[in-house]
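Lab notes, practical 5.
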Amino acid sequence: MLADLATRDGHRVAAFDLFGDLDLEADEALRGGSLTALVDAALEVPARGVVYGASFENHPGLVARLAERHVLLGNPPDVLRAVRDPWRLAAALHDAGLPSPATVAGAPDDRSRRWLRKPLRGGGGTRVRAWRGGALPAGVVVQERIDGVVCSAAAVADGVDAVVLGISEQLVGRRAFGVRGHRWCGNLVPPRLETTALLEQGRAICSCLASAFALRGLFGVDFVWDGERAWTIEVNPRPTASLEAIEAAHGVEVFAAHLRGCAGELPLVEEARGGAAGKAVLFATEDVVIGDSEAWLERGVRDIPHPGERIAAGRPICTVVAAAATPEAVLARLEEGAGAVRSDLGVEVVAGG
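Output from the prediction step:
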C-alpha cells in the first residue's frame, strides 16, 4: 500500500517487504526473512528518504539504524518509545480530559470490570484475548475492555498539532475474512454510524497526542466509540492500513500529506467528499498452497501471493478492496470479493501442515 501511494504521488520507490508479493515486485520489491534483514537491505540502497510501515513502531532500535543512513520520513525512536508506552499515553490523555481504558502490568484488583490481556509489542489484535485470571508473562499487560464500535483516526502531524484525514471503522474478528476474536481484518471509510461527534473527538485526541509526543507525519489512533465518548486504545505512530481506503473515499493525497507533516507543515484538508471505500485482509483458515494467482492482478486484488506459495492457517492470503456509495455496500462487496477469492483460489490443503 505504501509503495502504491508513493508511486501514485510521482515518487520512485524501492520497496522492502517480508511478503514480497506478486503485485509489489513490479515496484522493485525485495523480499527478506525478518525486519532486520529488511533494514540491512534498505541500508544498501541510496535514497532521498525512508518511510517505515507496520511493526516498526515496536522496534525503535531498527528505526534508529535506518536513520543513520537515510533521512527518516517519520517519527524517530524516542517518539516511538514514548507514545507506545501505555502509561505515558494514558497520562497525556488524562491531562487533556480525554478517556482511556485502565491498563495494569499485573493482575487487576478490580474483578468487577471485564479485562483483556494484550502484548505490549503487538499489533492488529494478535494475541489479544479475554483475561480470566492467572499469571501474566513478561511483555503482556491487562487493559479494561470497553464496549462499543472499534474505530481509528488517520491523521498527519507537524510536531505540534495534527489534522485528521479520515475516520474508519475497523473490521475485527469477522469470519467472512477468516478471523475471530479481536483480530483486525480491514477498514470501512466512513464508519457505519453518525460521525459528527466521533470526528470532533477524534480531532481533539489527535491534536492532543501530536502536541504531547511531538508526532510528525502520518499516524493512527485506535479507539472504541461507546456512543458518546472515544476511548483511546493505542497509537500507531506511522502510516496506517486505512490510508488507501481514506484516499479512495475522500480524495485525500495521503502520501503528500505525510511528506508535508514530516517537513513541519500541516496540509490543508478539504471537507470530505461523499462515497465510501474499504479494504479487507483475507486470512487462511487452513494450510494451503496457492495455485495460479497471476489472474488476480487484473481483478483489483492486492498483496497477491506467488503461485506455489505455502500459506499457513492464520496467515494473510491477500487484500480485497471496494468502493461504493455507502459503507454498508462496501462491506457487502468486500465479503463478496473474499468469497470469490476463496472459491477460485485453486489451492490444495497441505497435509500435516
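Observations recorded by the TA: Confidence is low (pLDDT under 50) at residues 347-353. Residues 1-73 form one domain.
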